[in-house]
Structure formats: structure tokens, C-alpha cells
Amino acid sequence: MSETTPGSDKDDALRLTPEASGGWEDLTRSWDDISLNEKPRSVDDRGDAPPIQIPRDSPHRRSVWGRVGRTVVSLVLIFGLIGPVLVTAAYRFVPPPITYLMVERVFEGRGFSRQWRSLDEISPRLVRSVIAAEDAKFCSHRGFDFGAMQKAFAHNERSKRVRGGSTISQQTAKNIFLWPDRSYVRKGLEAYFTVLIEGLWGKRRIMEVYLNSVEWGPGVYGAQAAAMKNFGVGADQLSPAQAARLAAILPSPLKWRAAKPGPYVKRRSGRIDKAAGTVRREGMASCVLG
What we know:
- By secondary structure, the chain is an all-alpha fold.
- The chain is built from 13 helices and 3 strands; from the N terminus they run H-H-H-H-E-H-H-H-H-H-E-E-H-H-H-H.
- The protein has a domain at 100-289: Orthogonal Bundle (Penicillin binding protein transpeptidase fold), CATH 1.10.3810.
- Helix 5 packs across helix 12 (263-281) and helix 7 crosses helix 9.
């Protein structure tokens, strides 16, 4: 058995030499190509990297749309349902402020005159005349007179002169909360607010708000302003004839005059005066006057 001696071929095979590795220069150059301070490229440095996309059916996307949906539903509940109920409930105790129609008339240059009076400070004659002229079944319906609505529809189909079938409750809802328009949207909202005021206010409060907010001439709103403007007396001092004249011009307050009525208003106010007597005798205003 032979011994391996230093400098033999086997020992040379295990020894790293410049010649065996391609030279010291090649070895140094290979180490120089390696940078020990080099950092991995960040996401921002990868200009050619595609953007991250969230699948349409991912849980994250569904959660975002869920939050948006809940927010929309909450806003609808607050402003569409809860808000109107709270406002209507507040108007049960405090006088409603200026309405949309009043603002519109001010911008038209018609002025503004209104003095709030409680129902006890308004003549019962005016209450009975308004019921006789506008809504004979005011105390017996729950906000809507469907028979009057059907008659008004049939009349409007035959005649160019439009006849309204709205009750005093419907007119009050429109005057206080809505705008003067004949769209289906407004009529739907009018029905909604009519139900609210019938349930939250009651007949007496509806009549009080109506008589203090209805338009009675250019820039004239409410019974007190109308009585002073036309007859120079307070709303509590109106005579039967004066009350009937004020009720007579309600369908067209910008066209007709109570102080100096034309032939049509005279005839109409005469009929209303007689009908107001019937309202008094048959107790058709008992829900308001007790």
C-alpha cells in the first residue's frame, strides 16, 4: 500500500490554485459583481408590476358595498321617515314658520303679511264659513273625502274650469310642508303628510294652522292679516258676511277680492253664508268649536 506524500497528484487535486480557479483576477472580479448593500426592490420600484385588483366577488368588495347600502338606508330613514314625523310633531305645539309658497311670493315681489292667532282669537263665523266653502265633511273624514275627489275628477273631465277635491287637511299638508305643484310626486307626499297631521295634530290644530297659513291675497297669509287688509278689523271681529266673503275667495285669492267683490264673489259668498248657517245648526264644526 503506497503512501501519499506531499506534492503528489492527489494532494494537488485538493489544493485551490490560481490556475485551477481561472486566475485570481477572475475570482476577484466575480466577488466585485456582488453588492452586499443591495436591497430588494420595493413594490413602488417595480414599474412593470401589474396593479393589485380586488375580485368583484371578494369579501372586501362586498363589505364596502354593504357599508354604503347601510348608510343610504339610514339616511332615507332619517330624512324620509323619521325627520318628517319629528317636524310634524313639533308643529303640533309651535307655529309653522314661513312656507315654500310664501318664499316664492316674496321673490315674485308680492310682499309678506302674517300675524299668527290662536283658534280662540279667530271668529267661529270664519271657521263655519270655511268648512261650508271648502270641506263640509271636515269633522267626519280622516283626511280624505273620496266622494268629493271622484266628483272633482268627473267635473274636470267635462269642464275647462278645474275643481279641486282636496280636503282642508290635504290643503294644510300642502301649504305647510310642500310646494305648489300638480305632480304625482307632490300628491303622494301630500297624502303622506295628511295622514301624519290627522294622527298627530287632530282636527282643531289642523284648522288653526290652516287659518293662519292659507293665502288670502297677494302677500297676505292667515285670517288676521286678511281681516285687517280687507275690512280693517281683527279676525275675532268678523261679521257673518265678511267671513263668508273671505271664504269665497279662497279658491283664487290672487284674482278675487273680498273687500270689493265682483258679481261672482257676491253670489258665491251669499251661498256660503247660508251654508254656514247649516253648518252651525247641524253641528258640522263640532270637532273644532266643540
